[in-house]
Amino acid sequence: MHLNLQRLRKVSGKKMLAGVLILGVIVSMAALNLARSKKQAGIPVKVAKTEIKPIQDNVFASGRVRLTQKQELYNYTSTTVRELFVSPGDQVQKGQVLGLLDPVDLEDKLNEARVNFNVQESNLNKAIYPRDEEVAQERASYQRAEADYRNAQKEYERTKVLFEQGAVSAKDLEDAELEKTVKEAEYKRAGEGLTMKETGPTGHERESLQAQVEQARLQVEQAEKNLNRTVLRAEMDGVVTAVEVMAGDFVQMGTLLMTIGDAGQLEVTAGVSEADSGRLMPGQKVAITAAAQPNREYTGIVQSVSPAAVAAKTAENGSQIEVPVIVKMECDIEGLRPGYTVDLSINVVDKENALVVPYEAVMEKEGLKQVFVIENQVARLKDVATGVDTALFTEILSGLSEGDTVVVSPIGTLMDGMRVNEIANQPPSNEGATTL
């Protein structure tokens, strides 16, 4: 019996060994078949079709509504507000008196300026058009000066002879020479005065007199302007949007007193981020929304983009670089008021028929834009020329045709010529992702 048991154990061991070998062969064949299957299936990739469709892209910013046309009234001297005739919201017409300021001593300054102008003008007229008696007086003065000079010259000659004879001292000769020099100068001045009286001032003298008259005239104009500014007048039809002072207030020079404007003509000023500013240009369409009118959307166009950037303060007391933009309203502006804060959506891209691919399909390597295109389950790397980019799509200008199948977010191990397996609606893999 013991012998039978040993034989039974030997037979069972052989069967078990055979079973293990058979199982190993089956597993190996299955693994080989799976590997071959994977090799034939290729790398799984997410794909999309190139298509022609309208594309749009927008730049967003916040702005403030302001009057297109307005008049700000300031005072040009420190004074007191005497009276105000309008309040915010009042309709006004061009030329209407809005208020009065105390003229202080401006009336006296105007009178002084007018007197000075009359004096300067009289001096010029006298120089150009002298009276006969004035000419006669000037000629008599000239003749006296001539006689005095001749006598001084004779006295000098006589003294010089006496000095040479030793009859007078050197001091006497010097005094005689000095007297002759003085009388000669007076004689020349008298001659110039007579010439001016007879012919009028010429050259520099005439220009100097005319300049004094012109300066006096400008002083009169300025004094009149300052006095007129104490009467606050509307220079346009519009509405009073702000009154900054009250009757009786003492105001320093340069204080803003009130503002009027045309409430029917509004515009929006905004600051666009430095990164987006290069995409803006005049004429682009703008959608405008305001918190005060949540159920309305207004429209406008970009009127101007500043050629210079500015540093704007942020809510965190920091600063950021922005480019000022002005948007012209092109719609019914009912409900909008100057000073409102609004949100802007500036349409920077608007094409009806553009060949596009998903933004994630385009790669860049050494300045070249490239896309993987699937041809017969094989990935082919192609160079493309791109146009505008939006948040979702990139425009293709050349290198692809409508209906081409492209790889979206290709993994880093994907290379030109590799076999791939198109996986519909599979999210892009982050493993090994790269930008070429």
UniProtKB/TrEMBL annotation:
A single Gene Ontology CC annotation of this entry is: cell envelope
UniProt keyword Lipid metabolism present: no
Q: Where in the cell is it found?
A: Cell envelope
Name the keywords, alphabetized.
Coiled coil
- Tell me which PANTHER family the record gives: EFFLUX SYSTEM COMPONENT YKNX-RELATED
Regarding protein family, the annotation reads: Belongs to the membrane fusion protein (MFP) (TC 8.A.1) family.
Q: Under which name does UniProt file this protein?
A: Macrolide export protein MacA
Protein's organism = Pelotomaculum schinkii
Per the record, the gene is: macA_2
